[in-house]
Amino acid sequence: MINWIERMLKELNLVESMDQPNGFTRLSYSEGEDRSIEVFKKEAESLGLQVSEDSAGNVIARWEGKRKDAPIVATGSHLDTVSQGGGYDGVAGIISSLGGVKQLMEEGFEPDCPIEVLNFRSEESSRFGVSTIGSKAMSGKLDLSIGKVEDAEGITIKEAAESRGYVWESFIEADKKEDIKSFVELHIEQGMNIEENEKDFGVVRSVACPVRLKVTIEGKASHTGTTPMNRRQDALVAVAPLVSFVSQKAGSIAGDEGEQLVATVSTIDLVPNSMNVIPGKVELGVDIRSVDDSLKHEIKKQIEDKCREIEDQHKVAISTEVLVDNDSIDLDEGVQSRLMEAGEASGLEGLMMNSGAGHDVMNMQAKCPSGLIFIPCKDGLSHHPGEFASLEDIQKGMHVLTNFLRNEASE
Amino acid sequence: MINWIERMLKELNLVESMDQPNGFTRLSYSEGEDRSIEVFKKEAESLGLQVSEDSAGNVIARWEGKRKDAPIVATGSHLDTVSQGGGYDGVAGIISSLGGVKQLMEEGFEPDCPIEVLNFRSEESSRFGVSTIGSKAMSGKLDLSIGKVEDAEGITIKEAAESRGYVWESFIEADKKEDIKSFVELHIEQGMNIEENEKDFGVVRSVACPVRLKVTIEGKASHTGTTPMNRRQDALVAVAPLVSFVSQKAGSIAGDEGEQLVATVSTIDLVPNSMNVIPGKVELGVDIRSVDDSLKHEIKKQIEDKCREIEDQHKVAISTEVLVDNDSIDLDEGVQSRLMEAGEASGLEGLMMNSGAGHDVMNMQAKCPSGLIFIPCKDGLSHHPGEFASLEDIQKGMHVLTNFLRNEASE
């Protein structure tokens, strides 16, 4: 099985070797995502699964059960990546889901209910700033108005989706009508908790959804050579202390473990960003996460207070806009216990933990009882060419998922 | 004459009204610069000047003198702008030079030597980070190797120039061979010294040329949601104190007048600049200017020391690269005195001062005795849509220049 995992890893990542210094780039609704999805479909068909696509581009690979109308046992993840990201985020989940089905087939298992492996289209937010579009559609949570959101080149989500052959208005028809008994996703941890606690896998209790702010600082652009230091309204100089503030304040709220809350100034856009012009305007993107929603709102307020202080000290105007404010998601407790049991049955030790990152499973939880398995990844590194999970750790995670699927789909 | 100034201002800026909220954008080697140059050529021809273009795209509008071989009296400026810049930077100089000739013609003046109005192509650095390309070529200071420098879209200077019909390798042939008696440029001050000293115009002693640094901070990109605060190598958090440091240190060196030295972090590029990824790499552009070269090197060293301190405090690597290190230029003392006299002869009061910004005149000083007249501009604002010089102030400056040209070109 480990050779199959290795082959799938390369094939789904469209490479001959996983050693890629510039990482993997398969943005939402790109040709790269399409090609990876084709690999998935081909492998699913070769396993004898019935492959179909819903109106939002999600692929459903179905293993028919003895009872065709019974609630479905579902599992899956995604195949798109961030720009220059890693080869395991999403892919490890697709491999484990497909591998779990393959294993059960090889055992001669006959599922009582249908088992479906789902590939959710366009999970990552790096192209449009909007994440999990496919699973939003499948779980009936999609708001079609996001179709007008643009990428850096001015292409909208609607245009990008339609360039791949879909019809944006039909995305809402992807809302899955059949009963689903449970949905489980496997994903790399993107952190170091499992490793530090010397466990084999993690089972997620809650998913920390972000509060995201756009902070706009308006100073005054003028000539770098002719504007005396004491007459400037430099928007970048004004905002520099805010970058330090967000990091320090989050660090103190986070506590010694550094995990209660995370907050990041992750984007910055300067106008005009020209060597001989004092920055007249700066836009910052701030990403705040915690499974404790009250902590997110506490730091949000402190950031806003700091902006007022900066406005008073520098001659600038600052506005803050809330781009995203999603409450954290508690996953199903029954699924959590059954996942821990499935792991223990394989002699593996699991860690109950939270997820700092959003995943498709948080949408599916609105549809059906859902769970999330984490597997370790090297140094917790993710969204980076150096992202790595060992074949052994992927296989261990797959064992947990396989046991879970067997239990769920048994009479 | 004031109506002519107003008409030329609009025509050279390619607008019906000077009230343009988004300013003026005629980048180096753009179609906009071409169109503005065509307006200039047409007006020069209508005045009866002989219009020619050198191999670097500089336009020479010549008024023949009684002695055709006598050293030339030259004046001029440029017609390109920064992105969303003002309508007076460069244009005020072209109008004054052409208006000076027009005035002398209307007086029936017959120049003893040739008078040339020069338009230098591509003075601004905002497209390529390289300034005064045309005057570098005309003064024999052009290094053809800069042809490979790219703009933000990856177009090189050579490609941009050749797209306008020039041959890059021929740019060196623009090195002007005839003797030039003097060259004078008129420009908006881009500062507030003239106004604060209640004078009518300025005469520049020295031009402060920049030291420009590229500072590259390498941290580690990772997921904003899953990387605990105490395990981050956030390049933006590391560099934020450097932005404050440059501003504070320059302010203290600059003194109470804020003018001895200016230093600006004017550009910032984040990699990946993506909402859910911790900034792994940041590049800063730092622009440092003073007519006192030792002060520029003092703050450069302090910035480098601060980088070492930041490297120790944060887990990042910082490298600094010197992009530009040009000594300041002292303009010709004889021309300075004659410009002051020319102003006083018109009943105008002049201020001897320095220039914080570079201009084409600094290249021409290497070729011939050169001088720079400043006229006031509102609030010192420049490289900004709000840049403004009154028609009256342009006309006063033109009087100084006209008197100077008359004196220079008399027997």
UniProtKB/TrEMBL annotation, chains A, B:
Zn(2+) 1 binds at residues 78, 89, 187. It holds the Pfam family Peptidase_M20. Zn(2+) 2 binds at residues 89, 124, 383. CDD domains: M20_bAS. Allantoate binds at residues 212, 276, 289. Binds 2 Zn(2+) ions per subunit. Its cofactor is Mn(2+); Zn(2+). The keyword Hydrolase applies. The keyword Zinc applies. Gene3D superfamilies: 3.30.70.360, Zn peptidases. One of its GO terms (molecular function) is metal ion binding. InterPro entries: Amidase_Cbmase, Bact_exopeptidase_dim_dom, Peptidase_M20, Peptidase_M20_dimer. Keywords: Hydrolase, Manganese, Metal-binding, Zinc. Residues 213-312 form the Peptidase M20 dimerisation domain. NCBIfam families: hydantase (TIGR01879). PANTHER family: ALLANTOATE DEIMINASE-RELATED (PTHR32494:SF19). Belongs to the peptidase M20 family. Homodimer. This is Zn-dependent hydrolase. It comes from Halalkalibacillus sediminis.
